[in-house]
Amino acid sequence: MMENKVFLSFTFYSTILILKMYTVAIITGQVRLRKKAFANPEDALRNGGLQFFREDPDVERCRRAHRNDMENIFPFLFLGAIYSLLDPSPAVARIHFLIFCVGRITHTIAYLLQLRAPTRSVAYSVAQLPCFSMALQILLATTPYW
């Protein structure tokens, strides 16, 4: 696999996306601490009392951004891995992975910084294009075997 240039490119962009997800998780935790809004009573007790066992709109925004990442990046990881095995053009594959990665990073920035609409939805839509392309190519390659 280490000779497969497409898979190496996929691995690079996937790792960037996983690190981005870790960053959002860390940001969520920091916002929780700053806003004193804890999801569990034991955490609230440790940080000032049960009155801090509550929801906060800023924490919820971070959680939604993270959930959206999981809903989109996990399928990309599957599609990209299978797509890499189809022996696509390395340049075309790299474009697929780059577009998805940039779209997801832009989506997260727009979500967390509450950028003006339609920034977030455009970033989401752009990132979906390479996923649909990879899914279609996977289906076309595997249809003879169904």
TrEMBL record:
UniProt-listed Pfam families = MAPEG
Q: Which GO terms describe its molecular function?
A: glutathione transferase activity; oxidoreductase activity; prostaglandin-E synthase activity
- Required cofactors, per record? glutathione
What InterPro entries would the database entry show? Answer: MAPEG-like_dom_sf (IPR023352), Membr-assoc_MAPEG (IPR001129), MGST1-like (IPR040162)
State its location(s): Cytoplasm, Perinuclear region; Membrane
For this protein, the parts annotated as crossing the membrane are 6-27, 92-113, 122-140
Superkingdom per UniProt: Eukaryota
What's the chief localization of this chain? Answer: cytoplasm
Topology within the bilayer: Multi-pass membrane protein
GO BP terms, alphabetized: prostaglandin biosynthetic process
List the GO cellular component terms.
Answer: membrane; perinuclear region of cytoplasm
The record's listing under SUPFAM superfamilies reads:
MAPEG domain-like
Name the protein family.
Belongs to the MAPEG family.
Q: What does this protein do?
A: Terminal enzyme of the cyclooxygenase (COX)-2-mediated prostaglandin E2 (PGE2) biosynthetic pathway. Catalyzes the glutathione-dependent oxidoreduction of prostaglandin endoperoxide H2 (PGH2) to prostaglandin E2 (PGE2) in response to inflammatory stimuli. Plays a key role in inflammation response, fever and pain. Also catalyzes the oxidoreduction of endocannabinoids into prostaglandin glycerol esters and PGG2 into 15-hydroperoxy-PGE2.
What is the name attached to this protein's record? Prostaglandin E synthase
Q: Which organism is it from?
A: Chloebia gouldiae (Gouldian finch)
Upper lineage ranks?
A: Eukaryota, Metazoa, Chordata, Craniata, Vertebrata
